[in-house]
């Protein structure tokens, strides 16, 4: 009799949906290009250079549109993050290298993946372009329509084949519900944009001001620096002290929010895919285990291979249980890394703002500008890849640790060998304790007999000055041969600790796992440092505030000058010719800037310099 789960798998093994998501990705480029052309037509070019007849016919239309500012965008951050989340399934499709539209040789695989990435980016470009466009009414309509198309096609694909071959019921729903949730959020966001822009268009609401050059949190940060008396510190909670403290004068850019959201969804999808593979392998192992049981039954449990087969069955059962149990700690480790990376980003940025580079290796104090620009483009994708591969490596390491615990502690008790296990554990613990005790004894002897006394009672430790030199030389001689053997264990422990820390921190792109002097070989850490420097140079609150003061002052001077000229043109009195007005303005300029008189160019037949001197003499008299 077939189980319900097996029947579900058989049904979905023959389920053929009328919607091919990969084919739909190709066809989605048509409306995507249409939306891009419409928004580009509405976008005007600020600096138009008429080089040929074609550009003259286009005028200042068809400007370049950007999906989002990867450096200085602090507004609408969560909308951009959710838009990134809508691309999670396609990103995982590329990550699994499932994009194979053509049969190509292996050496050209990188070009195909590049084309696939460009296609995925182009198909999801309207989400970001419509969110960042200045033409809110048109972009909201286009964004809502495009999001609705993706939402409807995904719903249709799920309804036709909701189950799968690995997890059984609702497997497709488990894969696509994050993207559906993100698309539903985008539908609501574009609908809100449409209603708000329509009310502005009808005159029911005032139009919002343009994006400020200086963000509020950046201004608050500068005010905090200029404040003479520090604010009174309030009592912090346990969460603020131990975990995270929110800073109102700091905001994460949209790039970091989008990277974190996409990393969370991709990690979830990766865990689901891994669990599907686990279910498939488990079923295959169950079949193999059944064949082994049939062999043992046929041999009446008297064959020579029976003990080996029983050990293999035990290993398979233990491995399946350990792998399933370690999914949770491995996933929680990577989730904690994502939050910790955000905290490290804020900590490192604040240190760079304060001019502190001591936390960086020396070779990264002055990074290459070109590499830093490339690093900010690499960071987001590399961070997600590091998290996914890091989860898999951490899961493998934790599974190996689980197998060691099972075979060293649990299985001996199950097999009624608890006393032998405790005896071996006690001997091992005693051996390690003696070795550590001898090492501590060497330190105590050196402190007590071979160092001179403290020079002051306030000193924390004795000075590095030898005492009892003859005894010291004998001490070194006799321990020389013992430390050779002790060094072997220290070397193996160094290798073991390096492997554990390296695999445990492989997902941490903000921390290098290379030794001192070899940090440049860590490409992920180099991308992290380059990204920090780009953000530091372009979003430093002090620098942005200074530039804002210059821009504001320049605008005010231009406004005052325009008002003065307007009043001069609109003043009451007899009409003055344009030539006389120009000469009067020229005289005013030369009076205010006498050095310009010597720089004036005199044309033949015009005594402009003499005329200027006469005017200046008349003004002085």
Question: Count of DSSP E strands?
Answer: 0
Oligomer: single chain
Biggest β-sheet description: none
The average pLDDT value, as a whole number, equals 81
* Category by helix and strand content: mainly alpha
Number of helices: 22
Which overall shape is indicated by the principal axes computed on the Cα atoms?
Answer: flat
First CA to last CA: what distance?
118 Å
Proportion of beta-strand residues: under 5%
Stretches where pLDDT falls below 50 for ≥5 residues? 1-12
Along the chain, the helix and strand elements come as: HHHHHHHHHHHHHHHHHHHHHH
How much helical structure, as a percent, in the residues? Answer: 55-70%
If you compute it from the alpha carbons, what radius of gyration comes out, rounded to the nearest whole angstrom? 36 Å
Keywords: Cell membrane, Membrane, Receptor, Transmembrane, Transmembrane helix, Transport
Main location: membrane
Transmembrane segments: 24-42, 78-95, 107-129, 141-159, 174-191, 261-281, 322-345, 386-410, 430-451, 479-506
Subcellular location: Cell membrane
